[in-house]
Amino acid sequence: MSDSSVVPTVQALLARLEERDALIVQLKSEIDTLKAKVATLEVRLGKNSQNSSKPPSTDAFTKPPPRSLRRPSGRAPGKQSGDAGMRLEPAETPDEVVLHEPDACERCGLDLTDAPASGERFRQVFDLPRIRLQIVEHRVLTRTCSCGHRTEAPFPPEATATTCYGPRIQGLGAYLLHRQHLPVARTAELMTDAFGAPVSTGWLASLAARAKTLLEPFLETARQGLRHAPVVHFDETGARVNGTLRWVHVACTPELTLLHLAIGRSAEAIGSGGILGHGFAGVAVHDGLPAYRKFPVQHGLCDVHHLRELAGIAEATGQQWATGLAELLVEILVAVNEAKDAGRTRLNKRVLRGYRRRYRRLVAEGTRLNPLPPPTGKRGRPALGTVRSLLKRLDANRDDVLRFASDFRVPFSNNEAERGIRMVKLQQKVSGSWRSWEGAEAFLAIRSYVGTARKQGANTLRALQDAFAGDPWLPATP
């Protein structure tokens, strides 16, 4: 074979080898991308309410076993020795005494009408009296002055029409709807059957709008109290209003609850509640929604969410750093609780530094085991994936993750906010959605009022009745 024929053959072979190498590189990149996608899907498939932020309602028929941060106490279940029991104690002054006397002797049958009493026992039955509506007729007189002017006395505020229901029955209707979350039709049925008040569903539905107007003094008092609180919990959840997804936001403390409705979850939507961005300078505890970072305050992140995410990663990948970090967070929580029980207000500085070093080391180990995903060739940065995204948050926000350890006012979790918003989800299950923005706002105003009253030990039914009487209960604030 001549040299002239060999050269083209070698060049063609080299070209084929270059094509092969380029194809290998391309296929390897595609394989890496597919591996990352498979890993992401496996993590997503393995998520449930115990190892992620998914609600329990999404677990369907595969309910995971419950997890708890509590450690075994060694005590038997039920009432503990020495604890005060609960029982129905006899009343010193009963409303009614009914005397029961024997008519004849059980043995010989003689009449006992004039026989002397030789003993007495009693039993008290606690029961409801027969309930019926009390109808009060208000009559106003008109008197004529010597000057000739006629003056009529005013009707009381509750007498708004020739016949109308008063504040107590209005408060009861609102209580059944917005505290006990009964459907409107069943509330009407209950009030008819139990109280002899044949109310209409339309009348019941109108209570919320009237209550919202009457609760304005409470709403402003709660808003001011939250602005001056040292720590406030925030959360949000989706809700359907007139068929469109909207968002319910909550700001709360162990003493106060305030809910508001917004179009979305932006910083502007959060600020429309009147707390963040309106003079609040405390610690904002939340679940890590980026919009909260727009507000220049200290932040505390919910570590119960982190524990669930770390559990999911440990189950999906088997990586020990995730288990170790979860155990470290629980260890710090135990130390904080023990310090609080001992009357201390902070952890030992050396101990806290040791916790921080272990935290950084575990996050670094996770970062090493989970490198950045390879470039996809598309514009923009590739998606980090579940594991790397969590590691990034844990590293960038380590002070907020461990805020509960450096500031004992900050709790380990954001459960306070989740409890404050839980009844909104229940209402959505009962009613499906709200038909109007105004109706949703009215419901949230009443739930804010009822939730705060419960937290501060007030009787919620009486508080609602006072509100309809024009004198709403006002909470104690810091």
Question: Which keywords apply here?
Answer:
alpha/beta; coiled coil; 7 strands; five-stranded mixed β-sheet; 15 helices; Transposase-related
Short précis:
The protein is of the alpha/beta class and 478 residues long. Helix content is 46%, strand content 8%. It contains 15 helices and 7 strands.
Strand residue content: 5-15%
Low-confidence stretches: none
CA gyration radius, whole angstroms: 34 Å
Distinct helical segment count: 15
Find the structural class using helix and strand composition: alpha/beta
Query: What does the main sheet amount to?
Result: 5 strands, mixed
Coiled coil: 17-44
Protein name: IS66 family transposase
Domain Transposase IS66 central: 164-441
InterPro entries: DUF6444, Transposase-related, Transposase_IS66_central
Characterize the structure shown.
This protein is of the alpha/beta class and 478 residues long. Among the domains are: 136-283 and 431-477, no CATH class; 303-371 and 384-412, no CATH class. It has helices at residues 3-45, 167-178, 184-195, 201-214, 216-227, 267-271, 303-317, 320-341, 349-369, 385-396, 398-401, 403-406, 415-431, 437-455, 460-468, and strands at residues 142-144, 150-152, 231-241, 244-252, 257-262, 283-286, 298-301. The longest helix has 43 residues, at 3-45. The N and C termini lie far apart (99 Å). 27% of the residues are buried. Keywords: Coiled coil. Residues 164-441 form the Transposase IS66 central domain. Residues 46-88 are annotated as: Disordered.
